[in-house]
Protein: Major Facilitator Superfamily
Amino acid sequence: MSGIQEEKPIWYKRLKLEIEDVRKFKGPYVNPYIRLGAYVLITFLTGCIYWGWNGIQELLYKGGSFADLCNGQSDISFITIGNEQYIDCGLRKSEINNLYTIAFTSHFVFSLVGGVLLDIVGPKIVFLGSQVINLTTWLLIFSIPKNKSVLIAGFFIIGLTAESSYVPLLTVSRYFPKNNSFIMTLLGSVRSLSFFVPMILSEIFKTNFFKPESLFKIGIIYAVFGNGLAMLLGGYLLQWKFEVKETMPQKSVELDVLDEAEISSFTSDELIKMLNPENFKKKCLLSRMKDLIVSGFKHPQLLEFVLFLISSTLFLTGYGFVNKAQREIFVTSDGKSAVDLFKYFNILTFLPAPLMGMMIDKIGPAYVIFILQFSGFLFYFLITFDFYATKVLACFCYIIAGSISVSSIYCYLNKRFSHKRFGTLMGIVFVSIGAISLTNIPLYDLAVINLKHKAPFNFRPIEIGLAVYMAVAFSIMIYLATNAKRKQPQHIQIESGSFCV
Structure:
């Protein structure tokens, strides 16, 4: 009957996202779905394009980066890009692919800076500033591709601004209060799609219309349709400060209150001294940091955080090596190569991401991260075999391992630790990942320079070592998943029990 409203099916109710009233936050007041759509487009255009390293490699090879290093080398080979062949050798491989590690390392080491700036100056300025720096840097890289200093500094800066140009967009998850992890992983999956951008630019540059010396034209195209469009959208939609609007007219006072888990780590004498009113007057930033460090070392979740730190660092260090070594590790001794297949699989990592986000909301982050890391272990296990079929199977494992490789860190810290310490904990994890990822430079050089006489098996020792990385990582996550089931974090117990009457 027309007068009776038809009940929505169960699947529709489960898929429908609950949205917050936009006027709860500062303007501009835009429908959350429209805002999300705009942020998705921005993320696709500028999310983390250097991770689409296959396309960047082709741009640099045709542009002539480090080609002079092959003069007089005994291991000269040729790489086909489009219809042309370009010279290659161990030294050139090393210099080009180590640029990826430079960007990867600065990406994680300096991610804390982006978080601090976000708190101090707000999403709009951080985003626009990062986009301007990004735009300028890509133009320099594409305009002077044969200058080593420009390339090293350029990719360092690209990594430096990778998170600060992306993290402001995560504020959109606040408009979907019951689906935060899903929205974060949705943007994370679109970030994987941004790996497709260098491939598009590479396909354009491969055509005979563009000569090797005209790489700067590709830079101009990306500056206009990539960073330029992102700046227009983000400049309008992002807030100067992302804050919940005041509901009471009187001014609020922010107190730096320790949570119960931190309080329990102090003795009664220490607490009496801390609560002395005179101490609040004298307390400086240095002493507050000292108190924070002391409470951190006494915190009941210290072991959990350290184990998560080790697990995440090993996993992402091994994950980061794949991109820089893809042109070597996917080749078999009979000349077959899965490299061209892998570059599409690298983009397809976006597919499982939304499902992974929903699983995190349902069963918790530890189990999902275990799935990622076990897939990473299977990748390295399969890639060590000298068969084309196992190389292809490894690509399928990579789709799972790379689906929410970075977003999973956000989700774990968001679910398991106090929100007050989220930025600090995230910064510590990312600095660790960035620092240890530097070891990928000597590992890669060991294979392409010191062990080049063993090609195509020169990467096997490194592959076995990285498989061990993954095994240790997922073993730790098994423990953390089991522990999470038995023991709920203290701050969650407080939040769930504080308002019971």
Observations:
- Residues 247-257, 493-501 have pLDDT under 50 and may be disordered.
